[in-house]
Specification:
single chain; 233 residues; alpha+beta; 3 domains; five-stranded antiparallel sheet; three-stranded antiparallel sheet; 28% strand; globular
């Protein structure tokens, strides 16, 4: 006898839903982690998703034709880059004053105390420069799909896959809780034929992630299929 197993996950926080929180008659489920109530009937892992509305190309994206093939370009610069620039100038301005006083007064204990904060400031400088200069490209050629970030790539690495390796592209909402509130980011993942999942990009807005999913599946001729934990459209 064929046994069909259905996994239901929360579209908000991706937590698995307990069976007692699923109502088969109404098609509603409640998440025990974040208390979200949602319709789970479209969440059948491995089944085709309904026709989705077209996702318009967001501003940071553009298409280019290169010798390697067709390339989708994502420019990191956004409104948040200017907020980061302001914070970076504020932080490092304070650290410059701190070390100016420490050196002038020969307060070496004061200088040593500021080392961790100085390291944070240097990290902010790197992150700010990356926000203004970096671009991530997804290049489609007949024999491979490559994902690259340039010119500053300290925390990223190039990825390359044969088109036949990629079984599905899906998006995932990542929620991080801090003392200042909740931060949301949006991941674009590739599910490989061997079952392994690879993170391709991390983005600030859901429409950016959904656009990449749409264009990658369209270019690679991948049929859109529901994946457990996938962000709903």
């Amino acid at each position: 006898m064929l046994l069909i197993v259905m996994d239901v996950v929360c579209p908000r926080c991706a937590a698995p839903i307990e069976a007692e929180n699923v109502n088969l008659e109404s098609g509603l489920a409640k998440c025990g982690e974040c208390n979200a109530v949602f319709d789970f009937r479209q969440q059948l892992a491995g089944t085709p998703t309904p026709e989705r509305p077209e996702v318009e190309m967001p501003k940071p994206f553009s298409w280019q034709e290169t010798f390697d093939g067709l390339t989708l370009v994502y420019d990191w610069r956004s409104a948040s880059a200017y907020g980061l620039l302001f914070f970076c100038l504020l932080w490092n301005g304070f650290m410059a004053m701190w070390y100016g006083i420490a050196i002038h007064e020969q307060e070496w204990t004061m200088a040593a105390f500021g080392i961790i904060h100085l390291a944070v400031g240097l990290g902010l400088i790197y992150g700010t420069l990356a926000k203004f200069r970096n671009r991530t490209t997804i290049t489609f050629s007949p024999d491979k799909v490559t994902v690259q970030t340039r010119p500053m790539r300290l925390f990223t690495k190039d990825q390359a896959y044969e088109p036949r390796e990629i079984q599905q592209i899906f998006c995932e909402e990542k929620i991080t809780r801090t003392k200042n509130g909740v931060n949301r980011s949006y991941l674009v993942n590739a599910q490989l034929c061997g079952g392994e999942t690879k993170k391709l990009l991390k983005l600030e807005k859901p429409e950016q992630a959904l656009y990449i999913e749409q264009e990658m599946e369209r270019t690679l001729n991948i049929r859109d299929v529901r994946v457990a934990g996938e962000m709903t459209h």
